[in-house]
Q: What sequence folds into this?
């Protein structure tokens, strides 16, 4: 079986989801990040993985459920940190972030199955990607890919196909970056902690 990796920042006010401000306060943005991370980790626990590793920038808190192994993120730009995260798996792995609380166990199960795929690619609607799965993780598949730009996903997927990998695609999802993103994600996953908190915060700020 494959490893599930979650790369995330600890939900500390002023350090996470800063693009949600000033629509939300830094504390509210951190609360939304915490809810998204908890939803994500609950889904990770429900997926059929060999190991579940949270690759964390910051310190774990009471939001961390049992059954998740925590490793500290290395220093460096995001492409380097993603490559290092895959190295922790020691074999086939699917990596996701903390920005898609709408993700389901079924989607993760799909991306963990490398029977007919060398790689899985989950595009995000902002031009990035929300999931990347590698049957045989190679750091060079990630290093040098420009991150957090509109063509990140295009470049990353091309890197995989140029390496001769059989790439299969997961559905496109919306990352939570802006207030508009947050509203869309909450509407798409109304039973999540994220949606409940978002509704409560929006009711207060009206």
A:
């Amino acid at each position: 079986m494959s490893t599930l990796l979650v790369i995330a920042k600890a939900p500390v006010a002023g350090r996470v989801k800063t693009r949600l401000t000033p629509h939300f306060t830094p504390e509210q943005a951190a609360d939304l990040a915490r809810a998204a991370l908890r939803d994500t980790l609950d889904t990770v626990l429900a997926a059929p993985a060999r190991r579940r590793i949270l690759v964390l920038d910051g310190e774990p808190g009471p939001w961390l459920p049992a059954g998740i192994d925590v490793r500290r993120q290395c220093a460096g730009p995001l492409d380097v940190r993603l490559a290092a995260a895959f190295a922790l798996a020691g074999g086939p792995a699917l990596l996701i972030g903390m920005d898609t609380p709408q993700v389901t166990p079924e989607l993760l199960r799909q991306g963990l199955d490398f029977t007919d795929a060398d790689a899985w690619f989950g595009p995000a609607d902002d031009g990035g990607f929300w999931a990347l799965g590698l049957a045989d993780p190679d750091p060079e598949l990630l290093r040098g890919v420009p991150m957090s730009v509109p063509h990140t996903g295009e470049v990353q997927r091309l890197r995989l196909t140029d390496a001769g990998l059989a790439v299969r695609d997961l559905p496109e999802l919306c990352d939570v970056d802006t207030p508009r993103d947050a509203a869309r994600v909450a509407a798409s996953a109304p039973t999540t902690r994220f949606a409940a908190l978002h509704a409560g915060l929006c009711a207060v700020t009206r």
